[in-house]
């Protein structure tokens, strides 16, 4: 077999000259994509080049990635089985969606990121370009506080799993949680980091988070301590 067909040299994502720093970053990501034979790394590279003003570096920083990797690993360990459809609410650029779709143990057939910000859509579609081309990824613009989760609008089927890792951002969290159907499988994250003004619904402990989001069938409850805050996570059925 021609080795060039095994490790193709992917086309450049941009037609403009790159400054030395960005060119070096591109070269590193190109090499890692070949080393790991991972199309996700290629999608990350292309997104950074296509959307230089987006906060992709923040979305992929070590804390953000650690919290999302933790979610993926514990979801696998929780024994939820293969998931046909997943909705990631307030999913921003879709990094967690990409990580979930790249996890073969979950076998997700289709994942939708739901976010109120239309500026997130092109970035999320680029970061998930591979699963989007396969028909496995979509982005829908909705206010997650206004959705009817028992009867979703067109384009949003009833999912096997609802993921909300932005619970600290929801001032009306109690009403949002009350609107979820009984028996719905959920993965929820919150934190105690009040230094950010948008964090209007922080909790001080895992017990407080469990009280705020009581699950009839809890599968996992834990915390991840980081340098400036602690993140809390719940997995189970409402």
Note down, in words, how this protein is organized.
The longest helix has 17 residues, at 20-36. The model has no long low-confidence stretch (mean pLDDT 90). The chain has a seven-stranded mixed beta sheet with strand order 3-2-1-4-5-7-6, sandwiched between helices. The protein has two domains: 18-50, no CATH class; 59-237, 3-Layer(aba) Sandwich (Rossmann fold), CATH 3.40.50.150. With 238 residues, the protein is of the alpha/beta class. It is 36% helix and 18% strand. It has ten helices and seven strands. Helix 2 (20-36) runs antiparallel to helix 3 (39-50) and helix 5 (62-77) runs parallel beside helix 6. Helix 6 links the parallel strand 1 (85-89) and strand 2 (110-115). The protein starts with a helix and ends with a strand.
Give a short synopsis of this structure.
The protein has helices spanning 3-6, 20-36, 39-50, 56-59, 62-77, 95-101, 120-127, 129-133, 173-178, 206-212, and strands spanning 85-89, 110-115, 137-141, 161-164, 185-191, 217-225, 230-237. The protein has 238 residues and is α/β, with parallel strands linked by helices.
Set down the secondary structure blueprint.
Blueprint: H1 3-6, H2 20-36, H3 39-50, H4 56-59, H5 62-77, E1 85-89, H6 95-101, E2 110-115, H7 120-127, H8 129-133, E3 137-141, E4 161-164, H9 173-178, E5 185-191, H10 206-212, E6 217-225, E7 230-237
Parallel strand pairs: 1-2, 1-4, 2-3, 4-5
Antiparallel strand pairs: 5-7, 6-7
Helix pairs in contact: 2-3, 5-6
């Amino acid at each position: 077999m021609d080795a060039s067909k095994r490790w193709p040299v992917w086309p450049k994502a941009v037609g403009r000259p790159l400054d030395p720093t960005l060119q070096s970053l591109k070269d590193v990501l190109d090499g890692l994509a070949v080393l790991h034979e991972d199309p996700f790394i290629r999608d990350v590279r292309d997104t950074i080049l296509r959307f230089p003003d987006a906060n992709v570096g923040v979305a992929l920083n070590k804390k953000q990635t650690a919290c999302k990797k933790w979610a993926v690993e514990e979801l696998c360990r929780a024994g939820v089985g293969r998931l046909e459809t997943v909705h990631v609410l307030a999913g921003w650029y879709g990094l967690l969606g990409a990580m979930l779709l790249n996890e073969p143990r979950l076998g997700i057939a289709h994942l939708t990121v739901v976010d109120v910000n239309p500026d997130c859509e092109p970035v999320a579609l680029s970061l998930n370009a591979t699963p989007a081309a396969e028909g496995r990824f979509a982005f829908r613009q909705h206010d997650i506080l206004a959705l009817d989760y028992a009867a979703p609008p067109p384009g949003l089927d009833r999912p096997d799993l609802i993921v909300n890792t932005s619970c600290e951002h929801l001032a009306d969290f109690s009403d949002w949680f009350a609107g979820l159907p009984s028996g719905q499988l959920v993965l929820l994250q919150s934190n105690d980091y009040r230094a950010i003004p948008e964090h209007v619904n922080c909790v001080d402990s895992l017990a407080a988070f469990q009280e705020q989001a009581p699950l009839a069938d809890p599968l996992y409850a834990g915390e991840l301590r980081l340098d400036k805050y602690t993140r809390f996570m719940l997995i189970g059925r409402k």
